[in-house]
């Protein structure tokens, strides 16, 4: 199981704390240190709508020029921005065996996923 995100993100911290509290081990993939490869991003885009993967309420999106935001209209254009600025991806992303389990953190969703 792998958790993707940025360590100083408050939502990622909540997810990591919840997983730790429930003794669930995950490998953490830090976008800032390890980046994001196209194959992984494409896999996510096949499993979830691009609008779910792009965090349009986050600071990265809000700081983007309006013209650049207007270009993000489908999975291919979302992929380009995800690879260029991985901070625009909604965090954390929980994945197991290349299957996208959850985007973001929601305690009730995690309880359901992990049957706690």
Strand and helix map with partners:
Blueprint: E1 2-5, H1 10-21, E2 27-30, H2 31-34, H3 38-47, H4 50-53, H5 59-63, H6 66-71, H7 75-84, E3 93-96, E4 99-103, H8 107-114
Parallel strand pairs: 1-2
Antiparallel strand pairs: 1-3, 3-4
Helix pairs in contact: 3-7
Provide a descriptive summary of the structure in words.
This protein is an alpha+beta fold and 116 residues long. The chain has helices at residues 10-21, 31-34, 38-47, 50-53, 59-63, 66-71, 75-84, 107-114; strands at 2-5, 27-30, 93-96, 99-103. The protein has a four-stranded mixed sheet with strand order 2-1-3-4, with helices on both faces. Strand 3 and strand 4 form a beta hairpin. The chain starts with a strand and ends with a helix.
The biggest beta sheet reads: 4 strands, mixed
- CATH architecture grouping: 3-Layer(aba) Sandwich
Question: How would you name the CATH homologous superfamily?
Answer: Glutaredoxin
CATH topology grouping? Glutaredoxin
Strand runs, count: 4
Helix content: 40-55%
Termini, distance in Å?
17 Å
Low-confidence parts, pLDDT < 50 over ≥5 residues?
none
Mean pLDDT: 96
**Oligomeric state:** single chain
Total helices: the number is 8
Spatially, the strands of the biggest sheet line up as: 2-1-3-4
What is the N-to-C order of secondary-structure elements (H for helix, E for strand)? EHEHHHHHHEEH
Tell me the number of structural domains.
Answer: 1
Structural class designation: alpha+beta
CATH C-level label: Alpha Beta
What would the principal axes of the Cα set say about the shape?
Answer: globular
Please indicate the percent range of residues in DSSP E strands (runs of 2 or more): 5-15%
């Amino acid at each position: 199981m792998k958790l993707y995100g940025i360590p100083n993100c408050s939502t990622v911290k909540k997810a990591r704390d919840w997983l730790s509290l429930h003794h669930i081990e995950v490998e953490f993939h830090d976008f800032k240190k390890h980046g994001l490869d196209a194959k992984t991003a494409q896999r996510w885009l096949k499993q979830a709508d691009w609008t779910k993967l792009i965090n349009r309420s986050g600071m990265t999106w809000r700081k983007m020029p309006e013209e650049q935001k207007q270009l993000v209209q489908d999975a291919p254009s979302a992929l380009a921005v995800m690879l260029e600025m991985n901070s625009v991806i909604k965090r954390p992303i929980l994945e197991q065996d290349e299957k996208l389990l959850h985007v973001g953190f929601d305690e009730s969703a995690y309880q359901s996923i992990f049957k706690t």
